[in-house]
Amino acid sequence: MALLRDTKARARRIDLSYFARPHPFRRWRSLLSIALPVVAAAWVAAMAARGDEHAYNSGGMSARHAMLESNCAACHTTAWGQRYTDPAAWQESLDRACLRCHDGPVHHLNAAGLVRGTKGRETASRCSSCHIEHESRAKLADVRDMNCIACHADLKTAGPGSHPATCPAGADHAIHARIEGFERGHPEFAAVARKKADPTVVSFNHAVHLQPDTAQKRELIRTQLKALSGRAGIEAAADGTLQLSCSYCHPSAPGGAYRAPVLYETHCRDCHPLKLKDAPVPHVAPDAVRDFLRSRLAKGGAGGDALAGQVTEAEVPLYTSDPDGCMKCHKTDLGDKFPDVPPVVARTGLRPGLPGREGTPRRWFVHAVFNHETHRELRCTECHAARESKLTADLLMPSRAACLKCHSAAGGVSTACATCHTFHDKARERTSEGTLRIGDVVK
Ligand code: HEC
Ligand code: HEC
Ligand code: HEC
Ligand code: HEC
Ligand code: HEC
Ligand code: HEC
Ligand code: HEC
Ligand code: HEC
Ligand code: HEC
Ligand code: HEC
Q: Which atom of ligand 7 is nearest to the CA of 267?
């Protein structure tokens, strides 16, 4: 028997009115396609009614802006649509919002295209090109290298002389113009490259103190160290003998980034005392030393010429005697008129001297930042060749090669410019305290 195989017969098997009859699956589909948008719209309307703008959020705030999560309007002051209708104005309004709370002072006045604002209140522009929000960043100031290289790969410098005179590398060096990365194009640190001498004017010989060259000096320092044992920075070597460690004279400064200044009273007097018949003589300027001697010797009853003679008698050895006269450590000008006129002790450079700044750490790489605390597990001598140094004039600063061992792709530690450099010129930041109330930040 022949089967019915023609197309008509086959088509008849299909129910052509299937769509007209209800079916649970299709019913749900139409129901949901109306209900879901209605729910979503109601949610958005409800959020909007409460002033909550999370619905538009494109990612988490950075950690230090966490409190702005509920206050989108702190930064987004214009209609959301403006991002598409007028992107330039949208960016401008974002920058203005940053400036309501922050200063964002300029980098350098000659950093073309980056400066704006009124004279004396210049700021860096386009904050959000460097500070990228909505990426849940731990640190909004972790700025990408491309933001720096944009200028530094082909820098328009003001040339030599644009520097502060206090720059240890010399006021006359021009900023290197082609830097593409810490590993690519970054110059040797200027003070090291230019083989600058340490300008400090006080005699000091690291090697004599750390590895005395004669048996006599070794013996002397051992005796001295025994008397000082127990003080921080005096440590026992492998063979049990006591020795000076670097931090005896170079303890860390508060905060730990830099080292505290070396001071005669704390770090030298115990071994190099200044004395008048076993009584300590204060370590002060020559005229004050003379006043001290005069008042001390006057107590013995002398006066007039006799007193002046006794003062000179005490003064000459105080300046000139070896072991421990002033001149062991200081270039001292005794002049032609000494003893009538007190001698002149040259400024050491170890005392910043400005009132209120006596304790400020000395800086060597003023164009970068460094932190000893972050590197505290390393031996000091990995970066400073101090043990062998015999002259004050030796520059003991590390070269870039020492940093590259870790701060490189091979070493695995960050090579980002922002790790070692700041951007904003803090000197131009407003000096007064902040102006916000807590309510301006948290809604
Ligand atoms: C601290 C300031 C700040 C706050 C607060 C803030 N934003 Fe932003 N927002 C920005 C910046 C900066 C951009 C990036 C602009 C650009 O693309 O250059 C941005 C971009 C956006 C964009 C555009 C999409 C994108 O990823 O570029 C949306 C949408 C947005 N923000 C929503 C929100 C919402 C919603 C909130 C509140 C929960 C919020 N923002 C809070 C600073 C902020
Ligand atoms: C070329 C990139 C760049 C631009 C443009 C920029 N910044 Fe910065 N900003 C940085 C870097 C790098 C740091 C971290 C180092 C520092 O403090 O200078 C930083 C730090 C900051 C800090 C934190 C300072 C602190 O003490 O913790 C604030 C606030 C800041 N910037 C605000 C702004 C504002 C506001 C603008 C826009 C007017 C702006 N920035 C423009 C790169 C930039
Ligand atoms: C409503 C005020 C407010 C606005 C607007 C604001 N900030 Fe902040 N910002 C703060 C506060 C408060 C902190 C945390 C305290 C501090 O560091 O001063 C902070 C911290 C920062 C920091 C340091 C964070 C870090 O991780 O190092 C940077 C950089 C910064 N803001 C940049 C910006 C930028 C760029 C904008 C504009 C897109 C902006 N801020 C808008 C209040 C604000
Ligand atoms: C808009 C261009 C521009 C951008 C972007 C820029 N710089 Fe500069 N930078 C300059 C100029 C100009 C100088 C000054 C050079 C001179 O005249 O001596 C300078 C100088 C410097 C110096 C040496 C002098 C000093 O005072 O410290 C350092 C370090 C530096 N920039 C680091 C950075 C870092 C890090 C970034 C990225 C966060 C950056 N710069 C982004 C233009 C720029
Ligand atoms: C007995 C005290 C003393 C000890 C111990 C000592 N120093 Fe010094 N150091 C000084 C004095 C004083 C100066 C200032 C004179 C000078 O600049 O040479 C100085 C200067 C320095 C400087 C800056 C000067 C430059 O030219 O770079 C460095 C770096 C330094 N010391 C590192 C070390 C290290 C590392 C050690 C341990 C291996 C050490 N010091 C041990 C007293 C000491
Ligand atoms: C633990 C004891 C000790 C301390 C602390 C100490 N010295 Fe010395 N110093 C010595 C000894 C020992 C010698 C070698 C004998 C000598 O020349 O008096 C010496 C030698 C010197 C010399 C002669 C160097 C040479 O080239 O022969 C100078 C200068 C000097 N010290 C300066 C200082 C200064 C500055 C400080 C403080 C920052 C200081 N010392 C801290 C023990 C010490
Ligand atoms: C063992 C070495 C040593 C001897 C000896 C010594 N000094 Fe000093 N002197 C120092 C050091 C180190 C400093 C820098 C740190 C400080 O100010 O304490 C200094 C600083 C000074 C200063 C400050 C200079 C400035 O930079 O402003 C004067 C003044 C001074 N000494 C005078 C004297 C006189 C006067 C004598 C002798 C009576 C003397 N010193 C003996 C090591 C010595
Ligand atoms: C990873 C390298 C590194 C290590 C490790 C290191 N330093 Fe430094 N040190 C530096 C750099 C870089 C500077 C320059 C900082 C500046 O002034 O800009 C410096 C500066 C100094 C200065 C100069 C301050 C002055 O008063 O003249 C002294 C002193 C010093 N270090 C002592 C030490 C001592 C002590 C240790 C060990 C406890 C140590 N350093 C470990 C890199 C290092
Ligand atoms: C590991 C730390 C480190 C990193 C990363 C780093 N620098 Fe430096 N940079 C320094 C030190 C230290 C100096 C010396 C500063 C001085 O002499 O005062 C310096 C000097 C400079 C100078 C001044 C150069 C001169 O001619 O005197 C510029 C400009 C500079 N760096 C830009 C950059 C830029 C751009 C990047 C990122 C591509 C970068 N640096 C990355 C540590 C670093
Ligand atoms: C033994 C490896 C090592 C060497 C050598 C080294 N660093 Fe670092 N450095 C680190 C590590 C690890 C960090 C932490 C990195 C981080 O937090 O991302 C760091 C962080 C830093 C920071 C940021 C500090 C902070 O706490 O914010 C600076 C600046 C820096 N290094 C400069 C230098 C300079 C300049 C040299 C060379 C004189 C140097 N480092 C040599 C390992 C090293």
A: 12
